[in-house]
Amino acid sequence: MQRSDLAKPDLPDVPGVYLFKKGREILYVGKATSLRDRVRSYFDDDLIATRGPRIVDMVTRADRVAFEPAPTVLEALVREAALIKKYQPKANVEGKDDKTFLYAVITKEEWPRVLTVRGKDLSESRTHAQGVVLAKVYGPFPSGPQLREALRLIRKIFPFYDTPKPVTTKSKHVHAKIEFNRQIEQYPKELNKVAYRHTVRNVALLLSGRGKELRRTLARDMKKAADEERFEDAAGARRELYALDHVQDVSLIKEEHTEMGETRIEAYDTAHLSGTNAIGVMVVIASGVPEKKSYRTFKIRGVQKNDDIASLREVLSRRLAHPEWSLPDAIVVDGGKTQKKTAESVLAEMNMKIAVTAVVKDERHRPREIIGARAAGISEADAVLANAEAHRFSLAKHRLARARQFRSK
Fold this sequence. Notes:
Blueprint: E1 16-22, E2 25-32, H1 35-40, H2 47-51, H3 53-61, E3 64-69, H4 73-87, H5 90-93, E4 102-107, E5 114-118, E6 128-129, E7 132-141, H6 144-157, H7 172-183, H8 193-207, H9 211-227, H10 231-245, H11 250-257, E8 264-273, E9 276-286, E10 289-290, E11 296-299, H12 308-320, E12 330-334, H13 337-349, E13 355-361, E14 367-371, H14 373-376, H15 380-407
Parallel strand pairs: 8-12, 12-13
Antiparallel strand pairs: 1-2, 1-3, 4-5, 4-7, 6-7, 8-9, 9-10, 9-11, 13-14
Helix pairs in contact: 6-11, 9-10, 11-15, 12-13
């Protein structure tokens, strides 16, 4: 298969799973933050160095690429595992020891737990792990860190137990841990078996890659609860539906992008305390991973009022006055065309050619539009990741400054 063949499928810039195929045979299954960018990466000149001869051979043999979009990276991850389990593509499993893969399991207990288990700890029938009877087994998952991060995200939506020991009404040790974690909203707030069975059902649907069915189930639960005037339950189902569609899977994006080529991105954001004590921050993302030792904070000096444009100009000018700091491949700013042009004008004044991308937010501070990512040579997912990390770092610095201000009064 050649890069020119990519013109045939209309690959979208959205999360999903992709399948390299030769006729009806499925050679390889993968997941992507951006289907378009991820699949294109298989036709880069340095593929053999980054992915190895096995993948190069697979791409050469393939005659087409199929794909399935997914609403989130989280759902792309679990769908990938479901398809690998179903088809066992050679390029995914050949030459790998099945015992090293990580699986997600649901125990067959009074209060089912959701755990991660190595293949070596599963029996041949995959019904037991370390003496625990299993109701469901999901996987294999190619990346252990991604599975653990996915379960962390799922537990925020559908709180489940993952205690080392079984959950029983007689276990004081387990109950003490459950009580503590319930207080920090890590586990279900109430020991209600009927409600918890529904939670485990939802987790099972999600882990099996049946996101559409899960959404239909939640919508049905919401309607039924409303019809029966169980309004608190209806509101709970509505919150779960919303959380499922708006899961913040930035960490999964980070994990995926470590597998791709080295790209250094700097992202900028500003924060202020009621128009005073303004600060600007710079974060660095290298190969999709935060490089925290390179983060910088700038106390805004030349701007008297809350002026984001002037603050951005000052921060960039001061940052670019440090030639000893490694220069990025791209810069990401928070805002629209005005912020992008401001950054570009500062770069032009400094006689530097670095592409700028802008992330436009909606009224809920969610990414609405990405300007200039393709021209900057980065994916929209890269831009969103960098922008989110800059915003997180800016808020952290903002809270710290506010705490210091209050203590000084």
